[in-house]
Amino acid sequence: MALPVNIEKLIKGSVVETERIEFKKGWNPEDVIHTMCAFANDINNLGGGYIIIGIEEEDGGPVLPPNGLKQNQLDAMQKKLVELSNRIQPTYFAVSEPTEIRGEYIFVLYCPGGDNRPYKAPVSLSDKTRGQAHWIRRYNSTVQANDQEEQKLHELAAKIPFDDRINHQASVNDIKLSLVKEFLQEIDSPLFEQADDIPFVELCRQMQIVKGPVENLKPINVGLLLFNDEPHQFFPGAKIEVVIYQDEVGDRFSEKIFTGPIHKQLIRALEYLQTNVIREEVAKVEGQAQANRFYNYPYAAIEEVLANAVYHRSYELRNTIEVNVRLDEIEVLSFPGPLPPVDNEMLQKERIIARDYRNRRIGDFLKELQLTEGRSTGFPKIYKAMEQNGSPEPDFETDANRSYFLAKLPIHSRLKRGGQVGGQAKGQAAKKSLSDTEKAILRILEKGPSSRGKVLDALGMEKRTGYFRRIIDGLMDEDLIAYTIPDTPRHPNQQYKITDRGRRLLE
Q1: CB-based contacts of 212: which residues, under 8 Å, 6+ apart?
Q2: What domains lie within the chain, and their CATH numbers?
Q3: Please, what is the Cα angle at 85 between 83 and 90, to 5 degrees?
Q4: SS3 of 66, please?
């Protein structure tokens, strides 16, 4: 049975996080049944995982070329697998595929998160040892669940992620073969070559996008979101709305709504933004032959922010994803906010470690298409893209109830509020009044240049707050403060200094 993934990419870890792959040099039924049970329990809703037998593991990665298996082992392993599946309680069947890699046979087991968790498996397959245990994945290891983790498994029993649930309002015919084949071809899956030779229902079963008994087979939500031409018929909020404003008031704007399979929405919306919003600027530097080149918004940051919105939003809600392109920033708004324990305070950090995910299957499909990367890489990638472009830092927020998630990407500082490329003018209108915090920052810098950390310490603020960033950006827009190292906001030796205009305003 062919798997709906490219096995070479799977082995390299380019489409699935390493903690979701377990390599085994040889066939050990006891190890296999424990790991199958752990992936079936899917305690962190990551989508289960893969067991690859015939490849040794070293320092968490595969040792290539593979050790391989003997061809006569493969049939015996498949027969034994049926026995192991029945010894897991409730019964659980993985998807298996013997295959050949670099001239050697390997055996791949795809173990998706199960619908009937929590699962138990024997502590030992020896007749002398009795007893069963809940097995889970803890980072890259398969271990027995402790009391707290067992409690969590029971709490998750009635919480199948929405994208992995059966949709009883649809039929298998609502999944379009052409879209399925297009996806399989794009990810270079071996299943594409078999798509025309096996029954359509069997193809859907192998892709894990349908569930239920033969007489009442139904698509699951992720199948409709990716492989139906109009998923908004089933999920009214499955759209991306892009609004480009031409004035500050909001009276003049253009709007475009993207529908269709959610991965195609994402691609088309990004193409639209790249064509209609992103532009390259050239700033000539006095005394320097080579001009500085930058973008109003770095594409990589926009791509990551919008892909994360598609991945992490709830498709149970009718709210669409909103992309508002204002004169000085891009806002991407999605609903609801992040799952606990992520809150507004945690969103101010550059790296967020989340343990629970709203859409375990959508993430897998987007990773196959290379539209998202591994877990916990989104925020660092956004910060890095903004830094490399010389842009201000991004801003992320939610409310106390986590009812929304808002990502803001500020326009490049030289283009804010009518600023001229080359830094000749940033906005000459006089600032009539300053807040107490703004005055305090100017007085600190009046004594000499200071780093962000020292300014925050002097103000008694936390090390990273969106509030502080907005104040600093406002002072720089008004040309009241400036960087000591121009155009490199996050240089390790970067400091702020007060400008002559800032000194005059304090007098």
Answers
A1: 166, 218
A2: 1-157 (3.30.950), 161-229 (no CATH), 240-415 (3.30.565.60), 428-506 (1.10.10.10)
A3: 125
A4: coil
| Paired tokens of 388 | 């490399």
Single out the residue of 45, 43, 52, 41 nearest to residue 18, CA to CA.
52
* CA dist., res. 129 & res. 127, Å (int): 6
Give the integer Cα–Cα distance in Å for 376 and 394: 16
To the nearest 10°, the Cα dihedral for 285, 294, 465, 342? -160
Task: List helix spans (H) across 42-132.
Answer: 71-87
DSSP per residue, 461-480: --SS-HHHHHHHHHHHHTTS
The strand pair at 321-325 and 395-397 is best described as unpaired
Contact 56, 62 (CB under 8 A): yes
To which residue do tokens 């702020």 refer? 496
Alpha helices (runs of H) in 257-317, residue ranges in sequence order? 262-276, 299-312
Which of 253-257, 284-288, 482-486 is the most confident on average? 253-257
What is the CB neighbour count within 10 angstroms for residue 216? Answer: 9
Write out pLDDT tens, residues 73-102: 999 999 999 999 999 999 999 988 899 988
Q: What is the C-alpha separation between 454 and 452, in angstroms, rounded?
A: 6
Q: How far apart are CA 141 and CA 21, in angstroms?
A: 10
pLDDT digits (tens, 9 = 90+) for 131-179: 899 999 998 899 999 999 999 888 887 678 889 988 988 999 999 999 9
23's tokens:
């390599």
Written as six digits, the tokens of 191 are: 């299943």
Tell me the HSE value of 175 on the side-chain side, using a 13 A CA sphere: 28
Sorted by sequence, the CB contacts under 8 Å of residue 81 that are 6+ apart come out as 32, 94, 96, 109
Q: CB-based contacts of 162: which residues, under 8 Å, 6+ apart?
A: 221, 314, 315, 316, 358, 359
Does the pLDDT value for residue 29 go beyond 60? yes
Taking alpha carbons only, the member of 78, 53, 76, 75 closest to residue 66 is 53
**Listed residue (93, 26, 16, 80) closest to 53, CA to CA:** 26
8-state DSSP, 348 = G
Q: What CA–CA distance (Å, rounded) separates 75 from 67?
A: 18
Identity of the residue numbered 321: I
Cβ burial, residue 359 (10 Å; 0-12/13-18/19+): buried
Contact 381, 304 (CB under 8 A): yes
3-state SS class at 314 = coil
Query: In terms of residues, how long is the chain?
Result: 507
Q: What is the pLDDT of residue 273?
A: 96
Closest CA to 7 of 83, 92, 100: 100
pLDDT cut 70: percent of the chain above it: 89
Residue 397 β-bridge partners:
406
pLDDT (tens digit per residue) in 49-71: 999 999 999 887 899 989 999 98
